[in-house]
Amino acid sequence: MHVVLAQSTIMDKLASGCLRHVGGASSSPYAAPLQLQRSVSTLARATGRSQRRGLSVARCVMGAAATTELKGGGGGGGGSFDFQRYLSARAGAVHDALDQALPVGIPERLCESMRYSVLAGGKRVRPVLAVAACELVGGAAAAATPVACAVEMIHTMSLIHDDMPCMDDDGLRRGRPSNHVVFGEFTALLAGDALLSLAFEHMARGCAELGLPAARTLRAVAELGSAAGAGGVAAGQVADKASEGIPVSFAMLEYIHVHKTARLLEASAVSGAIVGGGTDAEIESVRRYARSIGLLFQVVDDVLDTTCTSEQLGKTAGKDVEADKATYPKLLGVDRARAYAAELLAMAEAELEGFDAERAAPLCHLARFIAYRQH
């Protein structure tokens, strides 16, 4: 008991220190952050604010209203914007670019393993986010394609490693057997490593071939590097595993998911805005928007894991409960988790108000897509 309490105390101190750093003035990627020190009473009030703003997330995250909301208007370009067509076109273009970028040949099994997971489909939220953020600040979609490919490679690496027996030991991903089940553990591990390396190589070469300014490319590479390592995904994964089976505070839960999930989504959007030529002010608005939808993505993910089946999700449902992981529904309850989702959606949309409505439409609808997704 004393060991568990001591570990919990250490984790909370880690989270508290990180959040103070995030909230202060800094030249790090966490400058101008989302306000993370949020109490449960604040979350309870979120429901009322959400209802006043006409948001339906608190009641129907993953509910039937999703289809109506995505088709309808409500800011960000109104009802004339066809988000599903936009998403399909951008995701399809990224898929084709990934198919061209991934290696074929020797070592054959390693290449097959890399291609198996990257080309397995998925929502492609991160690469589409990079493209949409680039377009938001006036850049061309093509300028963000190398970034979009790199982001998806990094994300896929994290999924391959996350599914392995030493991590979450999950045999199902995107509706089919996980990489290590098909190719074996050592090949899956090396495929993830190779994807991480390829991401930065492809991004550097691709941006150079497009003639983008070297300073933009370097800044975007640094952003993604920070998100993938000890300042992002790796830190979140370590904290996530260390928190299994022990009491976790809200601050610690936020620390885990800011790093494990939100940071890469944030870096995707920020890198897209950078290569698109956004100003510092525009980039920071994009950062705050993306931080909000990054946490929103995780809150929705946690609720879905609690309320949906494996067949609906395309991955094993209930794994977080089985592993005694810290989740938003576990800490707050499903209703308050949904209320928090509504608040995060409102915060994300607020960051887009200073941009051209037509350019902001994809990001506005993308936030709603994340909020109302079914899997």
Description:
By secondary structure, the chain is mainly α. It has a single domain (31-372), classed as Orthogonal Bundle (Farnesyl Diphosphate Synthase). The chain is built from 19 helices and 2 strands. It has helices at 2-23, 40-52, 57-60, 65-71, 83-101, 108-118, 125-136, 145-163, 179-183, 185-209, 214-228, 233-242, 250-275, 280-307, 310-313, 319-322, 328-332, 334-351, 357-372, and strands spanning 172-173, 176-177. A two-stranded antiparallel sheet has the order 1-2. A hairpin with a 2-residue loop joins strand 1 and strand 2 (176-177). The longest helix is centred in the C-terminal third of the chain and has 28 residues, at 280-307.
Helix content: over 70%
CATH architecture: Orthogonal Bundle
SSE order, one letter for each helix or strand: HHHHHHHHEEHHHHHHHHHHH
Shape: globular
CATH superfamily heading: Farnesyl Diphosphate Synthase
Estimate the mean pLDDT confidence: 81
CATH class: Mainly Alpha
CA radius of gyration is 20 Å
Q: Order of strands side by side in the largest beta sheet?
A: 1-2
| Beta-strand fraction estimate | under 5%
